[in-house]
Design brief:
about 350 residues, alpha/beta, eight-stranded mixed sheet, six-stranded parallel sheet, 14 helices, about 40% helix
Amino acid sequence: MINFCSYYQGSKVYENLFSSLKNIGINSYTYVSVKRDGVSRSGENITIINNQNFLCRYFYLFKLFSINNGLKSFSVPEGKHLVHGHTLYSDGIPAYLYATKKNLDLVITLRTTDVNLGFKYYLHYKWLARKALAYANKIVFVSPAHKVKFQYYFGHYYDEKLIIIPNGIDKFYLDNKLTSVLHKNKKHVALYVGTINKNKNLKASITAFFNINTNSEDEFRVVGGTYKEYVDIYGELPDNLVHKVIFLGTLPKEKVLEQMRASTVFIMVSHSETFGLVYVEAISQCLPIVYTQGQGVDGYFKDGEFGYRANSHDIDSISQAILKTISDFPYGLGPFIENPANNFSWESIANIYKEQVYK
């Protein structure tokens, strides 16, 4: 299999996927075209070419030319390969041009950058995207919400090709999953795990949590960033919340696990989210979740099954989702016969690709 995967270096998702596919007999040869921030290099069946400059950001056709030109340094063994573009605009269209030239089958995945940015800023290349999608054998979505947005934008011409496949979570969380939990805390402990940036909407989550929790002992714990990082983006916390919001910084996964087990609700209501592995990691620890309506895991579960969804632009909506979650799950999720996070193992996901996509 030949991968076009421009975001390979920025996420372990692809490394985990390709490794899991290799374990079941599917070898990958991956082409990564990135900005000129270092030397071009190659790993095991991975070729990283630093051949894009600032013009690629503003001129899409120039970007396509740069990606195509970099293929001169990319070689794969002779044979009948399948081509997989792991985003539509950065990978899928270049993969389409390559596949048509070589007369190869094509799979395209759509991600957050496509539905939230590509649909908006590459409207004048919709005709080219349609050609790539028409040629593709399968069109993959990581999130059910992305499929809905895709059908709204492109219509229902490609419905027979569409399939939703989630990302997998770290094996560590599956090896340490729970089937039930009993919180002994009299207070509510909210947990956020992730980087601190505007998209993560952390200020709104904190505000919403304390709007409905008046217990003086309630806490909101933040893993993945510092208070300074928070202040740089959102400004200072109100005086009455400074000692109730605990910034724990970056923690190893063993410590993250401890925080999940010590918390009563996980809250991450981002404005946009491709999937949100951390939601499923929380579920693996029987920690109920508050998540974003129309993004990420929304659609994988029924609203209220493991927590509630909220409108990221409406603090009252977030507050109500938190209130319903802690009311419906006062002792955590479960008990389960089998934790539902098992459905998100990379092993099972690789088998779905093998049996339903790469067949």
